[in-house]
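Go through this chain.

——
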Amino acid sequence: MLDLRPNCECCNKDLPPESEEAFICTFECTFCADCAQNVLNGACPNCGGNFQQRPIRPAAALLRHPASTQRIFKPEGCGQGT
């Protein structure tokens, strides 16, 4: 089950579970649309994989399976590369 991480690893922007701006790689590294496209050019800086828009978990399912509250942020930056 996806963690639905609460923020962009690059800029720390909040990405609530219902956000259409959240993008993930196969390891669930999570970035906002702006960082995924304009800063990282579509490639995860952690694994080199591509991004897909994160699915939105229905509100009823969030009650049983809540989103993660653990924030992952790289204040040193998240430039392109693996």
